[in-house]
Amino acid sequence: MTRRGRFAPTPSGLLHIGNVFAATAAWLQMRQAGGEFALRIEDIDKPRSRPEYVERIIEDLIWLGLDWDEGPRRGGSHEPYVQSLREPLYEEAFERLGETGFLYPCYCSRSDLASIGSAPHGLASEGAAYPGFCRTLSPEEREARAKRKEPAIRFIMPERVIEFLDGWAGPQAFDADTLGDFVVKRADGMFSYQLAVTVDDAAMGITDVLRGADLLDSTPRQLGLYEALNLEAPVFSHIPLLVDDTGMRLSKRDKSLTLASLQAEGIPPERLLGFLACFAGWIERAEPVTLSELIPLFRPVYPEGGILRVDASLRKWLWEK
Ligand code: GLU
């Protein structure tokens, strides 16, 4: 069976070093395995997404030397490759979940949810586990609440430990009470990331999902959806998050680390690739490399805690073009 991977950026900003690391690793994983690689634009959150970022992301990936077998500007057998055009698929899965008893309406307000507190650890993509307040409402209680508020719709997570073997992070186990029932459709009608990404990865035949460790706790939730929808789950791999010498996350907010600003500084793609291959440990010394040179050298790296330190001297090297 041909392995299939993907990069699935959200066009809510410019690509930065963290996204480039994820895109490059996902691409290298497939090229090393002789697999196929898809690009999918995750613009389901319409207010946060902008068309100009879609174009910029595509241009940035091309500048880096990445190619894709399917996706925007290329087409393929799983079109469209833009989530905002795939809503009928999410609707269909949503209806199936409803018919099989996996959903319930949730009338909790923002302040009800705030009272649950915050997520238990730093790497959380969904916030605190929802304790199921609305799960056991009687039909009468639901009716009374429905008069006041449009509900969000939650997915009922199985009440057991969810285990999986992560391709990079190793064996994982998540307790039911750290996950909770999560939203698949918001009160404003928008389908959630969790539902859309699961439906799309399954529909596109993705066998290998590789993404940032900030989404590690999304994986047990997505596995819940795969199971409920009777779909085969891919192998998940989560790559470490990048931090600087002081332990601060290299983030979107650091404008100097966007691809756009590196390009504006005249830094060639081979130098950027050498920089990330060096902190990933794929090459020993910082030196410019091409993507194809990295194909045989690529391997998983996952330090304790899912944090990878990018030291200041390496950062300095990047700017010494
Ligand atoms: N669209 C998500 C993001 O940009 C990534 C989703 C995924 O790879 O599963 O954060």
Automatic annotation (TrEMBL):
UniProt motif ('HIGH' region) ranges: 9-19
Keyword set includes Cell division: no
Bilayer-crossing regions: none
InterPro entries: aa-tRNA-synth_I_CS, Glu-Q_tRNA(Asp)_Synthase, Glu/Gln-tRNA-synth, Glu/Gln-tRNA-synth_Ib_cat-dom, GluQ/Sye, Rossmann-like_a/b/a_fold
UniProt record, GO biological process: glutamyl-tRNA aminoacylation; tRNA modification
Binding-site residues, Zn(2+): 106, 108, 130, 134
Essential cofactor(s): Zn(2+)
Keywords linked to the UniProt accession: Aminoacyl-tRNA synthetase, ATP-binding, Ligase, Metal-binding, Nucleotide-binding, Protein biosynthesis, Zinc
Family matches, as Pfam families: tRNA-synt_1c (PF00749)
PROSITE patterns assigned to the protein according to its UniProt record, in alphabetical order: AA_TRNA_LIGASE_I (PS00178)
Cofactor binding, note field: Binds 1 zinc ion per subunit.
GO MF assignments: ATP binding; glutamate-tRNA ligase activity; zinc ion binding
Role noted for this protein: Catalyzes the tRNA-independent activation of glutamate in presence of ATP and the subsequent transfer of glutamate onto a tRNA(Asp). Glutamate is transferred on the 2-amino-5-(4,5-dihydroxy-2-cyclopenten-1-yl) moiety of the queuosine in the wobble position of the QUC anticodon.
Matches recorded under PANTHER family: GLUTAMATE--TRNA LIGASE, GLUTAMYL-Q TRNA(ASP) SYNTHETASE
Family per similarity comment: Belongs to the class-I aminoacyl-tRNA synthetase family. GluQ subfamily.
Protein name as annotated: Glutamyl-Q tRNA(Asp) synthetase
Gene behind the chain: gluQ
